Amino acid sequence: GINESVYTLYATEHLLWIGPEKGLYTLNYQTEKIDLFLIKTIQNQSIHSSIQHIIEDKQDNLWISTYGQGLFRYNPKEHQLIQYEFPEINNMIASICIDSENQIWAVTNWGPNSLFKLNKVKDTFEPVIFTYDKPQYNSFALAMFEDSYQNLWIGSWESGLQKIDKYTGEIIKD
User: Fold this and answer.
1) Arithmetic mean of pLDDT over the chain
2) Among 35, 152, 163, 173, which is least packed by CB within 10 angstroms?
3) pLDDT recorded at residue 109
4) Closest listed residue to residue 41, CA positions, set 5, 72, 87, 3
5) Sheet order of strands, 80-84 included
6) What does DSSP assign to residue 128?
7) How confident is the model at residue 113 (pLDDT cuts 50, 70, 90)?
8) 18-46 mean pLDDT
């Protein structure tokens, strides 16, 4: 078994993905065997840091956020692992959100920018700058969610719950 804190779990058809303090593991439902995820990027990078969140997009890619290694995208059909680094925030990604348009968002509670969106043409994450009506607000994000009306919600450290216009970055006041 895994004898350390587990931060996240994600279920796919045949596997339970387990995100503990160090590395990534899978549990095979049929055999009940737990294995360390050993696939590496083409740069020979393995996932070895704290896993914060795991989520799946509409193309069946798994997105894995870490504290210390940024984000990883795993394509299970091709057994391909790609790393996205965020050096400006020490690769500390708290959570991932995949919206109804299959846009990939990454949130962090580190650094000057707390929200990033995948530019699919460039295959890089770009910061989304929030627009506040009061300059003293800041948003060190911990979680993100899209509701059934396609509104984005961010749970933040200092400013609580915030509703975001996903096209402009404007904080929406109800």
Assistant:
1) 90
2) 173
3) 82
4) 72
5) 50-56, 62-67, 71-75, 80-84
6) -
7) confident
8) 96
